[in-house]
Structure formats: structure tokens, C-alpha cells
Design goal:
Blueprint lengths: L1 H17 L5 H16 L3 H13 L1 H22 L2 H12 L3 H13 L7 H14 L4 H12 L2 H4 L4 H9 L5 H24 L14 H10 L1 H13 L3 H15 L5 H8 L2 H18 L2 H10 L6 H19 L2 H13 L5 H20 L5 H9 L4 H7 L3 H20 L1
Helix pairs in contact: 1-2, 2-16, 3-4, 3-16, 4-10, 4-14, 4-15, 4-16, 5-6, 5-12, 6-7, 6-8, 7-8, 7-21, 8-11, 8-21, 8-22, 10-16, 10-19, 11-20, 11-23, 13-14, 16-19, 18-19, 18-20, 19-20, 20-23
């Protein structure tokens, strides 16, 4: 119980230090140091945990992939490719209701901290034209912007899982994630979009040219996925081709200087700290034994799911970061003595739970930026979530039992 208490206390440091405006990457490094010192694993084990991320291929691939994603996002923003995607979308989709869902989802493909700020101006402008109240505009931006986290192989959470559990087939996990993503998209439509009174004034004639433009400007986003799927190259390598496509699309002025400036060192440091934390937790034998004993009881699947739910949501809320939560949860999942299909189901459940805790956290960066930009309060936004929150958690449990029935 001592090590469990230590993990609990160390993670409470995160929201405490956040009050002092310390960057999350530094907070997580401080947390790593505190966990290593207090856990009792010893200096040698702590050092091995820190250095293993540079010798383990999966961890190194994850860190380099995160760096490449930050470069890709920075370049696409700097050279106006994101704006061209928006323009192309307007020329193809006639219904502004659909645009309200599609634009945040497209922007969400670029996995960057606080990335909802990229889509907020577009959603705010369209929503104001359609006379949508500001709190609902904020909810629309946040709900649809995070879809990509579940389905893009280079999203930070999925890369962390891949590094922690190299034997896991990420494509299979993405398939399971669709059991959460599709219902939440439908729920988002009915809760926030369907009843908007809107008379379509867009008169757009379909043009093959416009479709080609959209495919061209979004190609840096999907080309790496195609290359990875066809060749099996690591994402850290496949993402180089996406950067090359941006180079071909842009005016090339100060390209390499912009490339270097686009590297988000704090994000890289944050992921490195999370991977180190994962290794430290795996060396905490008392905690691992305690966790295993929880699942050796005869209380059944429901009690196990509740443990994952409470821990994932709690740490997601207090950290405001999904990947930080996964640093605790994934090592626990890896210790489960279950058939492979059940491991995938628990991974799916833990991933979605950690997302839910992070999504509804008051220190979630995307939420903070969105409510600031749209000038709404946290409580006004939470009122918009009054039906979305219970739906999300009911969906989690229903989908897990459905997946167990279908695949386990």
C-alpha cells in the first residue's frame, strides 16, 4: 500500500505545480524524480528507467514521432496549408452544420497540446453567423476536435501505448476505438448540432478541382499513414515523407529555419518523462503485486472495470493530460493475466477512461484555450456537458460488454 500511496501523492503534485504556471513537461520531470526517490526502487533501477527510453526502439520511435508531428503541424500552420484546407472544405461541403463537425475533426488530426485553438476561430465565426450560443460553440469545438486521438496511429496516446506494449497491434486497437468514436460523434450531432435553426444559403456546385485541392492539401496528414500501412516503416520515418510533401506544397521561404522552430521541445520532454515514469512504475514491485492481487479476486469483470475507471478518470482530471494518465494505467494493464483479446478490451476501456478524465478536466489545455477565445466560463461549458458526460460513461461500459461478447 505504501507505493500506491506514493504514486497517489506524486500525481497530486501535478495540479499543485500547475498553479504556479510551470510547464507540464517540467512538472512531469519533477514528478519522475519524486517517484524515483520515494518509491524505494534504488538508484540503479531509477537510472535504468531513465536511460531505457534511449535504448528501447519502441520508446525512441515514439519520441522521434512526436517530434516529427510537432514539425508537421508547425509547418502546415506557418505556410497557410491549414487555411487552404478550410477554404477547400467550404468549397465542397454545402451545409454549415456539417462544416462545424468536419473542421475541428480535421484540425484535430494535428496532435498538438492545446490544438483546439487552431479550430476555435473557425468554429466561433461560423457559429456566430448561425447564432449559436458561445458555450455551445465551445462544446462543438472540443467534442469534434478530439476524434483523431482515437483513430490516428500517430496520436500521442496511441504512440505511448505502442512504446509501452510493442506486441499490441495498434490498428486492432483503433478498430475497437471506433465502438466509442462513432457513438460519440452521433451523440455530439444530436446534442449540439441537429436542433440549430439554419437555412442553407451556400450555393456550391461540386467540382472535381475542389476535391483534388482538398486531397492535395490534406495529403501531409494521411500520406504517412499510407506509407506506414503499406511498407511497415516506423512512423518516425513515415512522417519524414509528410514533411517532404509540405516542402513541395509551400513557397519554401526559410523552410529549414521554420522546421527547426516548429519542434515542440516541451511536448517531446513531456512524452520522455511519461515513458520514464512508466518504467519506474514497472520497477515498483510492491505496487505491481498489489495490483495483481486486485484482479485475482473473484469479484468479476465489473469490479476490475471500476478500478480502471476510477483510477483513469481521477488521474486524467488531476493532470489534465491523457498521456500522463496512461503512464500509470498501461503498466497495470500489461500485468493482467488474461487472453490477448481481453487485454485489447481493457486497453480500449482504459484509453477511453483516461481520455474522459482528461477531456472533462478543468486544466485541459484545449478547454482552457477554447473558453478563453470564446469568452465563456468553465461552468457555462460544463452545463453544455450535462447530457454528454453521463452518455460517455454509460457508453464505456455498454461497449466493453459488447466487445467482450463479440471478440472475447
Amino acid at each position: 500500500m505504501t507505493q500506491l500511496f506514493i504514486v497517489f501523492i506524486v500525481f497530486l503534485i501535478i495540479p499543485l505545480l500547475s498553479r504556479f504556471k510551470i510547464n507540464l513537461s517540467y512538472i512531469l520531470l519533477i514528478s519522475c524524480g519524486a517517484l524515483a526517490l520515494l518509491s524505494g526502487i534504488g538508484v540503479q533501477a531509477a537510472w535504468q528507467s531513465a536511460t531505457s527510453i534511449f535504448t528501447d526502439f519502441s520508446s525512441l520511435n515514439t519520441i522521434i514521432s512526436i517530434m516529427m508531428v510537432s514539425i508537421l503541424g508547425g509547418l502546415m500552420k506557418h505556410y497557410g496549408i491549414l487555411d487552404k484546407i478550410v477554404e477547400s472544405t467550404y468549397k465542397i461541403i454545402q451545409n454549415k452544420k456539417v462544416i462545424l463537425m468536419v473542421l475541428p475533426a480535421l484540425m484535430g488530426v494535428l496532435i498538438v497540446p492545446g490544438g483546439a485553438l487552431l479550430s476555435a476561430p473557425f468554429v466561433d465565426e461560423i457559429g456566430e453567423e448561425m447564432k449559436i450560443p458561445a458555450p455551445r460553440r465551445a462544446a462543438i469545438n472540443l467534442v469534434f476536435r478530439h476524434i483523431a486521438m482515437f483513430i490516428m496511429p500517430y496520436s500521442t496516446g496511441l504512440l505511448v501505448i505502442s512504446a509501452a506494449l510493442p506486441e499490441v497491434n495498434i490498428s486492432k486497437l483503433i478498430f475497437l476505438n471506433m465502438f466509442y468514436v462513432i457513438p460519440t460523434i452521433i451523440a455530439g450531432y444530436f446534442l449540439y448540432i441537429k436542433d440549430i435553426e439554419y437555412h442553407n444559403t451556400l450555393k456550391i456546385k461540386f467540382s472535381v478541382r475542389n476535391l483534388i485541392d482538398l486531397l492535395l492539401y490534406t495529403s501531409p496528414i494521411y500520406i504517412c499513414v499510407i506509407i506506414n500501412a503499406v511498407t511497415g516503416l516506423p512512423f518516425s520515418i513515415a512522417l519524414i515523407f509528410s514533411v517532404l510533401v509540405v516542402y513541395l506544397l509551400c513557397d519554401k521561404k526559410q523552410f529549414f529555419g521554420t522546421l527547426v522552430k516548429s519542434i515542440n521541445y516541451h511536448t517531446i520532454l513531456m512524452v520522455a518523462a511519461i515513458l520514464i515514469m512508466k518504467e519506474i512504475i514497472l520497477n515498483m514491485n510492491e505496487l505491481i503485486v498489489l495490483f495483481k492481487s486486485m484482479f485475482n479476486t473473484e469479484n468479476g469483470m465489473l469490479s476490475s472495470l471500476l478500478i480502471f475507471l476510477l483510477s483513469s478518470v481521477f488521474f486524467g482530471i488531476v493532470t489534465g493530460n491523457q498521456t500522463a494518465t496512461l503512464a500509470i494505467i498501461i503498466p497495470m494493464v500489461s500485468q493482467l493475466n488474461m487472453p490477448p483479446n481481453m487485454i485489447y478490451i481493457y486497453l480500449y476501456f482504459s484509453f477511453a477512461c483516461s481520455y474522459a478524465g482528461y477531456f472533462f478536466s478543468p486544466i485541459h489545455l484545449c478547454q482552457a484555450f477554447t473558453i478563453e477565445y470564446m469568452n465563456v466560463s468553465t461552468m457555462e461549458l460544463y452545463k453544455e456537458y450535462r447530457l454528454y458526460v453521463p452518455f460517455s460513461f454509460i457508453l464505456l461500459f455498454v461497449s466493453v460488454y459488447l466487445l467482450k461478447f463479440l471478440f472475447a
